[in-house]
């Protein structure tokens, strides 16, 4: 990860929150609990899908991969933020900053593809139930996951290769908790207007395009169910509510961060909290509380644990 000769910046300063010691302790506690919830909740879903044979279906295979990505996406930023909170100077090295950016965009790209795959899965299950298992066969499911990683890597590298060549000679203060392309480009010792446009077009178009594609998919499903059920949409809403909720939680911050070139720092920080801490901890709760199969699988697991311990 070599830099141009006129780059003298070896580290960046993350400004984060400026708050009292009491507020800092409170935030450390809150974010530590959120991160613990992210790890436990998502890994629980992952292992539940692996261990329970009744959940060995395309939808839960994709859900398990989504949980794994949520853990990875949060782990790129939240632990660093928690350890930085009590420090007056929140330092991140140039290499660590670039690595963080890459992982954020790779896993963000994977998550977008997984959400599209889950929408396709629900569309197939509702619109073509007799052909569902033939269409959503194991090869297709694995192909979705592989495609997600390929697109994520291409999405991240297509921007990273431009940013890594920029000269950085100061300033080095980032008014956020983490590194990201739009924030780092502004610190380059050159006119980054064109590169800012490329990054905004790349990430913004990907976020907006995926979001509208998902909305169209779920709208098509609702219209199909409405026609088949003589105007009764309640069943479709119950089935899709968790998916639609996750889509809005994930994409709303993304569209603000990448479509809006220069959001206010306070809004940027709040959106960061939503995207990297709130959404990943809510996803397991949303899919668990609103999913009968998951509830039944949890009961089966608890019965096995109880039986093995007391019988």
Automatic annotation (TrEMBL):
Q: How does it sit in the membrane?
A: Multi-pass membrane protein
Record keyword Calcium present: no
Query: Which species is this record about?
Result: Moschus moschiferus
Q: Where are the transmembrane segments?
A: 25-51, 58-78, 98-120, 140-164, 205-225, 237-259, 271-289
Which residues constitute the signal peptide according to the record?
Answer: none
- One example GO MF annotation: olfactory receptor activity
| Protein name from the UniProt record | Olfactory receptor
User: What residue stretches are annotated with the G-protein coupled receptors family 1 profile domain?
Assistant: 41-287
Name residues in a coiled coil: none
Q: Where found in the cell?
A: Cell membrane; Membrane
- Family annotation (PANTHER family): OLFACTORY RECEPTOR
Return the GO cellular component terms, semicolon-separated. plasma membrane
Q: Which Pfam families match?
A: 7tm_4 (PF13853)
**Function per UniProt:** Putative odorant or sperm cell receptor.
Give the keywords, sorted.
Cell membrane, Disulfide bond, G-protein coupled receptor, Membrane, Olfaction, Receptor, Sensory transduction, Transducer, Transmembrane, Transmembrane helix
User: What protein family does this chain belong to?
Assistant: Belongs to the G-protein coupled receptor 1 family.
- Primary localization: membrane
């Amino acid at each position: 990860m070599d830099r141009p000769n006129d780059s003298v910046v070896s580290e960046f300063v993350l400004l984060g929150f400026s708050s009292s010691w009491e507020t800092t302790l409170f935030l450390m506690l809150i974010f530590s609990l959120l991160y613990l919830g992210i790890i436990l909740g998502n890994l629980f879903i992952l292992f539940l899908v692996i261990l329970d044979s009744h959940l060995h279906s395309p939808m839960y295979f994709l859900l398990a991969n989504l949980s794994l990505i949520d853990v990875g996406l949060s782990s790129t930023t939240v632990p660093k933020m928690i350890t930085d909170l009590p420090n007056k100077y929140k330092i991140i090295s140039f290499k660590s900053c670039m690595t963080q950016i890459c992982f954020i965009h790779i896993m963000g790209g994977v998550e977008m593809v997984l959400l599209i795959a889950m929408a396709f899965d629900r569309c197939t299950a509702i619109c073509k139930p007799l052909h569902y298992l033939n269409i959503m066969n194991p090869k297709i499911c694995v192909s979705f996951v592989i495609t997600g990683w390929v697109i994520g890597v291409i999405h991240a590298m297509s921007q990273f290769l431009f940013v890594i060549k920029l000269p950085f000679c100061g300033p080095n203060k980032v008014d956020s908790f983490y590194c990201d392309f739009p924030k780092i480009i502004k610190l380059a010792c050159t006119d980054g207007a064109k590169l800012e446009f490329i990054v905004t077009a790349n990430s913004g178009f990907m976020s907006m395009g995926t979001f509208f594609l998902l909305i169209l998919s779920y709208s098509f499903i609702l219209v199909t169910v409405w026609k088949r059920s003589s105007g009764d949409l309640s069943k479709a809403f119950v089935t899709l509510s968790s998916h639609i909720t996750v889509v809005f939680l994930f994409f709303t911050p993304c569209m603000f961060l990448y479509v809006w070139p220069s959001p206010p720092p306070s809004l940027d920080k709040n959106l960061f909290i939503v995207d990297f801490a709130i959404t990943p901890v809510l996803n397991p709760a949303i899919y668990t509380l609103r999913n009968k199969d998951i509830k039944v699988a949890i009961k089966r697991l608890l019965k096995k644990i109880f039986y093995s311990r007391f019988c």
